[in-house]
Amino acid sequence: MLTNVSLFNFERMIIEKKLSRKEQLELAATELFKEKGYAASSMRDLANKLGIEAASLYSHIKSKEEILSNICFRMANEFFEAINKIEIENISASAKLERAIIAHTQVIIKNVSASSVFLHEWRHLNQPKLDEFIAMREDYQNKFISIIEEGIANDEFISIDAKFAVLTILSSLNWIHNWYDPNGKMSPLEIGQQLSRMSINGLKIRF
Amino acid sequence: MLTNVSLFNFERMIIEKKLSRKEQLELAATELFKEKGYAASSMRDLANKLGIEAASLYSHIKSKEEILSNICFRMANEFFEAINKIEIENISASAKLERAIIAHTQVIIKNVSASSVFLHEWRHLNQPKLDEFIAMREDYQNKFISIIEEGIANDEFISIDAKFAVLTILSSLNWIHNWYDPNGKMSPLEIGQQLSRMSINGLKIRF
DNA sequence: ATAATTTGCTAACGAACGTTAGCTTGTTTA
DNA sequence: TAAACAAGCTAACGTTCGTTAGCAAATTAT
């Protein structure tokens, strides 16, 4: 049913011609899952976005959950790569936290839809992927916790429960995908800088 | 199928005996929607939680969406009541923001499951409820924006995009439901105080 | 030129979905 | 005591769901 396929989708498909069909499929799925949520998105919705029949999707994928799983773990790896570069640098806790916040922000902004799916839809993964995902998430948070604990030990930061502080900071960062507008006033770097400024000021000891 | 009903549910039903059957139904739905998400929760799941048949639910409700709608708008009203008390007080912007943050925090902590549904599942509302909900949400945010703009005009706060600041602060608050543990170290009031301290320090001018 | 791969189709499956109709039973109200 | 209501049941409806089987055409690789 070609008439149901929007011009926008055609344009995108042409622009991103280098993408394999499977990649195009996962891109369309990412946008669909972001808009409607995973559970409310049907394979027929997805097929319609691509201008094909639902059954044809299965030439490219094994199951609906496989798509979700690919999106979630690809994003998880992106976040890890970003923080791994920072962890090894020999700088103050404040500087490390600033860079980590900016890096996290950049990953979200570069992948707005995929981040949204990553953040909200992971719970629809089945076992054992679900536990694997949760463990990665915990690892990632622990890297932030270590930075803040270092800052508290250094007297750079106020005495605070580090886990509480991390959850609070990450939750502000993880809201970006809901309001970020590529045509808005703030550039991705400015957003990261403002957020790290607010977060770190919130932690720093006041004289 | 009584064997499928957990002891926990029976206990809860006994403790909250004063609740009408419809209220019990909405309570069970709130927990279910929080755990699995609205779209992934079936009426048969819900019926099973109450130990009755799915068709029996319709003696109490008109539709699945009606349950969601009730949860969302009841919570919206709770948030409004909390902030309306603060708006009219004649205190500094910092003090107003502190009280607003603490009030918001209290509402979430007193209704952890309902807050979770309110924050994540509202998008499954149909029109015209959906637009009505979005408008209320915008109104609520605008009350926070006004407080911060007042603080910027007063030189209490740094010069910052007020909407950006509000979205950042609210997103940290709106994450509480994911980690709050009634048996944890921090009391509801302490959580509110810590969060307002972090948020307001992040906004205040540093000398 | 031929074989293999990619990409799609139609038809259909069994299961699960939200919901309705019509009925029974126990409790409360007039 | 009779009427009204609350709360549940069984049976079933039409629809949508994710997915499979088997086949056809086009493209790519050998």
Radius of gyration of chain A: 20 Å
Spatial separation of the terminal alpha carbons of chain A: 67 Å
| H and E order of chain A | HHHHHHHHHH
Number of helices of chain A: 10
Q: Judging from the principal axes of the Cα atoms, what is the shape of chain A?
A: elongated
Number of strands of chain A: 0
Helix content of chain A: 55-70%
Q: What proportion of the residues of chain A form beta strands (DSSP E)?
A: under 5%
3D architecture notes:
The structure is a homodimer of 207-residue chains. Chain A has 207 residues and is an all-alpha fold. Chain A contains ten helices and no strands. The relative contact order of chain A is 0.11. The interface between A and B is medium-sized, with 34 and 34 residues. Chain A binds a DNA duplex (30 and 30 nucleotides) through loops.
What can be said about this structure in brief?
Helices cover 68% and strands 0% of the residues of chain A.
Please write out the topology.
Two copies of one chain form a homodimer.
Chain A: H1 7-15, H2 21-36, H3 43-50, H4 64-87, H5 93-110, H6 112-120, H7 129-153, H8 162-173, H9 176-179, H10 188-203
The structure holds a DNA duplex (30 and 30 nucleotides).
